[in-house]
Write a structure and sequence with these properties.
- About 10% of the residues lie in helices and about 35% in strands.
- By secondary structure, it is mainly β.
- It folds into 2 domains: about 160 residues, Alpha-Beta Barrel (TIM Barrel); about 100 residues, Sandwich (Jelly Rolls).
Length: about 280
Amino acid sequence: MTLAMFDAVNVSNLPLDAEAAAGYVNGWFRTWPLIQRMFPSAHLLSIAVTADADAECLDVEKLDATPAQAPGWVKRQQARGIHRPVVYCSVSLAMTVLGQLGKAGIHRPHVRLWTAHYTGQPHICGPGTCGYQGLAVDADGTQWTDRAFGLDLDQSLLTSEFFGPPPGSGDYSEDNDMHAAISPGVPVVVTRWAGAAQQNLPPFFTVETFDLVGDTGAQVKVAFQADGKTLETQNFLLTAGEHVIVTPAAGTKTLRFSRADSNAALAVALDVFRK
């Protein structure tokens, strides 16, 4: 299930039966107050075009906010109680933005990624969908056209969870081993890696991912195991501040992380999320 969202500088182009709409809180086209009045029953998304303004979404593109400004803005919105702030950017800029966020300790499960990719075909960007070269993650929504219905009108396709769950229900859970350091010869074992029901999570949290952030040259081996058997192994050579997202093999119950290099001076932090 997905949602269609519309936004436009000329709000008269917005379909009145829109199930979701977005508007700008600042800039040349401040549409947010009117959007709130026009769509009292729709899902609404407020957008800041500069990093000094507060909203639910930050517009990262030329003449607006920059990737380097995104981490500070996201942390400020989190402090305001915004549930998983949204970052909007072109699909070509997505990994740059996520890289800046990762360096600041803001990882993929902490934000919603809204990409712009004008293919003329409804889609949500990801390696298995649009296949844009260099995009290693799935977006939460994609603005796929700026000429919807032949008008000056942006249309996006969003995941059904884009506007939920509400704060407090938990958009992800963190393993007890979060932020554990991985030293050569001392494996970190993450257990109880189970399905959503066993973790007492809402049923739609079924995607299991983890993040690694490390220094230049750190080599990390990850073994996905179940009932004492290794289902799959993956190896990573990290560069400075690299943010890596990995999806465990189906059926994984235990993850075993180990350093494949012998340089004890290189620290690697481990973040584990279940989404």
